[in-house]
Amino acid sequence: MPQLRLALAQVNPTVGDLAGNADLVVEWSRRARAEGAHVVAFPELMLAGYPIEDLALRESFAQASQRSAADLALRLADEGLGDMVVVIGYLDRAEESAPRL
Fold this sequence. Notes:
Layout: E1 6-8, H1 18-34, E2 39-41, H2 59-78, E3 85-87
Parallel strand pairs: 1-2, 2-3
Helix pairs in contact: 1-2
């Protein structure tokens, strides 16, 4: 039976530092790959940092977070990590929303 190796990257992202947090994702993805991982999972809101507080209310920051996630995917591919599953959390916003239970 094939083996699936999962890495959990318990890192400390900096609130608001999208570029620096993306660098952490690349660095720790490389480390996980070197240790034989097929999948690496990062903490909640890895790109935006946590606790995000009022930054979550800024449309411009949500858009920057979305762009950062897309750029990170391309960067991981360019650096030879495109076949590895990298799970990150980033800030996104819904166009429309309604209260739900």
